[in-house]
Amino acid sequence: MAHAPLLDVEDLTVAFGAQRVVDGVSFAVRRGETLAVVGESGSGKTLTGRALLGILPRGARVEAGRAVLADDRGAVDLLALSERALRRVRGDRVAMIFQEPMSALSPLHTVGAQVMEGLTLHSALRGAAARARCLETFAEVGFPDPLRAFAAYPFQLSGGLRQRAMIAMAMVCRPSLMIADEPTTALDVTTQATVLDLVRRLQGETGMAVMLITHDLGVVANVADTVAVLRKGRLVESGPVSAVIGAPGHPYTRRLIDAAPIAPICLSAAPAGNDAIITIRNLSKTYPGRSLGYGRAAPPVKAVADVALTLARGRTLAVVGESGSGKSTVAKLLLRAEAPDPGATILFRGRDGREEDVTRLEGAALKRFRRRAQMVFQDPFAALSPRMNLRDILTEPLRVHGVGTPAEQRDRAAGLMERVGLSADHLQRYPHAFSGGQRQRIAIARALALDPELLVCDEPTSALDVSVQAQVLDLLREIQAERGLSYFFISHDLAVVATLADQVAVMRRGRVIEAAPTARLFAAPVHPYTRALLAASPEPDLDRKLDLRLVAQGAGDPETWPEPFGYRDDAAPPLREIDPGHFVRCAA
Amino acid sequence: MTRARLPEIAGFALLALGLGAFATAAVPPTPGVAACVAGLVALRRSAAPLTRYVANRCLTMLGALLVISALVFAIIDLPPGDYLSNLIAELRATGQASSVAQAEFLMREYALDRPLVERYAIWMGFWPGPHGFSGILQGDFGRSFELDRPVADVVREGMAFTIGLNLAVVVFVYLTALPLGAISAVKANTWVDYLAALVGYIGLATPNFLLALVLMYYGNVAVGLPIGGGMAREFIGEPMSWAKFGSIALHMVAPVIVIGTAGMAAMMRRLRANLLDELGKPYVVTARAKGVAPATTVIRYPLRMALNPFVADIGNLLPQLVSGSVLVSVVMSLPTIGPTLLAALRSQDLFLSGFILLFVSALTLVGMLISDLLLAVIDPRIRLAT
Predict the structure, then answer these.
(1) What is the per-residue DSSP string for B265-305?
(2) What is the tally of structural domains in chain A?
(3) Does B96 lie at the interface with A, CB-CB under 8 angstroms?
(4) What does residue A225 show for φ and ψ, rounded to 5 degrees?
(5) B152 in contact with A at a CB cutoff of 8 Å?
(6) Coil, strand, or helix at residue A143?
(7) Nearest C-alpha of chain B: how many angstroms from A162?
(8) Could you tell me which residue, B28 or A269, shows the higher pLDDT?
């Protein structure tokens, strides 16, 4: 169809003071189509979206440009409108949804009230009619029980339902354009797949155009019609998705695509070592139910149930699961940050060949163990004290464990900096002077300071941009080859661990549901949940789109899994070895 | 279903019975108190979470009050030489038979020859004194030795005035701090903000008594506000009438401003800081993206979030006002309970000071209960988590 574009943006320039953060960007969105605006953090993609609605953060202003919105109600230049006139466009003709639905919704108002607000602002509907329209929208975005959702507060809904509420809020006035700013980044992959599908379906039904702001080329390949790639505020490439993703012209786009983690089709299997550094058996952790006051409590929560894992020396074991699967709790128990339920054993066999049960270590022995097992955390911004310079950060573990003289400690810190690819001249600087990827390198250097044997990595790359993510994974791989470290690697993303892990264990609801050598797991996944995870993980490949049928089959609760995998309540079937080294939780 | 509602019905009935007994004074207060406590205990089994919550809070509050009363009594008793012992010692020192006999009588009358625990129990009314059960639980607050009047008579007028003044101050603080704080947050770092900050700092930094003197003088010169006192002279001791009420209200204007300014300034700064944090939150951007007008956005979303600490402050505000206003009361010769407390503490007038301290504690606890209940009302996260 040769429609004139719905939104035609020309030469958009946004500046913070004298610094231009969006510089001369032009693009167009056609009716019923999806434009993906892609870029890494700091590329100006979010500001581009917010500039169109005139909701830039304090200090930023539009310096130049035109953004003509031409829908059924006439054509207007969004950037030239008065604040009052723009307010009538916002939420009505152009709606926006945000990344983190929990913080983007007011916690003090019911979901219904927040969705209704848009209607009362922009339409003549009031009272029962408005309410009916809201409930209708709730049903459209797939709330199983619209009436309940209407009266619920955001904190009473799950992440996926919250994002549906956000979408309902945007859809309720039937906008002609929806700007979605990283709408699925904060969601689990299976939820992401269903939300992306929902947006696409709504688009088909209402003819709405979508401007999707994202860093994830996998998402782009799955839903976009056209793509605009931003870098440092400038447009580096744009065009139909088949051209940009299929045959990228700009080296930056090429790099982004290459850096995106991909679940491999075929992997060579590494020989499995028999020398186990960690052997976990019968590991469970039950948290007491939240106190309801005066002696009454909610039923206890079983965060981890009956986990058995083995990590071979010098190898990587990846534990994969979505939020709430208990994977981080396993890591905490492994490092004795928390005590497991009685009956568990975690055997640690160090280089010296002595075997110890981590669950029973006390005092000096526990301190010795902690020196040999270190951790790298998810958020490099929160994991480093902003009040310590790098030298203090890197020498602190040495000082705590009384290793070396101050001069030796300083030399060691310098050596660590060089090892992770930073200059030793920067030891006097503070963490705020470094980017996310550099900070994660510092965190890795700190974990290496005591020359540990085991490194527990809790989602070390999920807070980083894709290109940086690949570099950090490379660094981890190099260090492993060099020092013979063993990694216990936690991730929510199967694709990230594909190239790093030797063994993968998939967790759901506190239980391991499938564990196998990596090549085997990717080549022949058996459990419906594993298959859903693999199917839901979007990839920058136009020929491998999301398979929602598989996602729907395995992503639900254990009760919804097909025979022989499903179970109710606590009656989980045992892990069975269906092939050497390949375990699946299923009834015989 | 009716079975499930049984504790609720019984609880409310007992509570009503107890409060009714207080109100009509038909029976001595002890059974009334007992009925109230029994009612609250029954309400803890109620089906409605909010009722359970309130019942629990009330019971905790009564427990806290009991502990406070013991502490107050023990601490007042700590320094040697209270008013009565001094009097008895003086009487004994005269050596005259009649004086010694009177001293003995006073000893027995106020059970001074008993151990501390027993005297406390008698004071509270848990234990029979020389005249049977007659303590705070029975509505007998004891006698002020220095003034030689029952404590109830001494504090009655002052207490009513104190509560009235405090309520007026709280209302003043909230009515001024809310808009000023909100405006200075929204217009942060503009002249409006700086002006509000200046007013606030003056309020915080100026000694209250100085402000009192200045305001009394200029208030009188400029608009003829009355100087000092709680009401016009001719109304003192008169029964309450509209004219008297008007006179009290007029006399309260200056004290309310003087006492409230510091609290207002502190609260304004706090609200500004809270609101500034909230203004940058994503849900505010969401509201703007929906096309909500700026003023409505601020009032409907971030301001409501910033209200929590504001409401939680009620409990702290009340005792601060009572103890903080003593000096102002002296300077402005206000008939609040503050100067009475000061005098009672100085002369170690046991029952008078004990009762006033207990009363101020009760006021604090009630303030906290009110703020907790208000929090539950305005914040669903608190309400639905209980």
Answers:
(1) HHHHHHHHHHHHHHHTSHHHHHHHHHT--HHHHHHHTHHHH
(2) 2
(3) no
(4) -100, -40
(5) no
(6) coil
(7) 13
(8) B28
Q: Give the pairing type, strands A209-214 and A226-231.
A: unpaired
pLDDT at A1: 44
Q: What is the span of the domain harbouring residue A220? A: 1-83+210-260
The predicted-structure confidence for A441-456, as pLDDT tens digits, reads as follows 999 999 999 999 999 9
Q: For residues A510-526, give the mean pLDDT.
A: 90
Q: Do A121 and B292 touch (CB under 8 A)?
A: yes
Whether A560 and A417 map to the same domain: the answer is yes
d(CA A240, CA B145): 95
Q: pTM of this prediction?
A: 0.77
How far does the CA of residue B203 sit from the closest CA of chain A (Å)? 31
How large is the average pLDDT for residues A234-252?
88
Distance CA B177, CA B165 (A): 18
Residue A152 within any structural domain of the chain: no
Minimal C-alpha gap between B44 and chain A (Å): 10
- Identify whether A488 is part of a domain: yes
DSSP annotation of B84? H
Whether residue A38 is contained in a domain is answered as yes
| Confidence band, pLDDT 50/70/90 cuts, at residue B10 | confident
Residues A581 and A544 in one domain: yes
Residue of B nearest to A104 (CA): B283
Find the CATH number of the domain harbouring A316.
3.40.50.300
Q: Which two tokens stand for residue A443?
A: 């965190």
Question: What is the distance between the alpha carbons of residues A7 and A176, in angstroms, rounded to a whole number?
Answer: 10
CB contact under 8 A, A104 and B379: no
Whether chain B has a CB inside 8 Å of the CB on A338: the answer is no
Chain A interface test: which of B285, B301, B311, B374 (most A C-beta within 10 Å): B285
Q: Does B386 touch chain A (CB under 8 A)?
A: yes
Q: Measured between CB atoms, does B48 come within 8 Å of chain A?
A: no
- pLDDT at position A574, please? 87
pLDDT bin (cut points 50, 70, 90) of residue A379 is: confident
Question: A313: which residues sit within 8 A by CB, 6+ positions away?
Answer: A273, A275, A276, A277, A349, A484, A486
Contact assignment for B381 to A87 by CB distance below 8 Å: no
Domains and CATH numbers, chain B: 2-75 (no CATH), 83-148 (no CATH), 150-385 (1.10.3720.10)
Chain A contact present for B189, CB below 8 A:
no
Tell whether A239 and A352 lie within a shared domain. no
Same domain membership, residue A386 and residue A239: no
Residue A164 lies in a domain: no
Q: Which one-letter DSSP state was computed for residue B82?
A: -
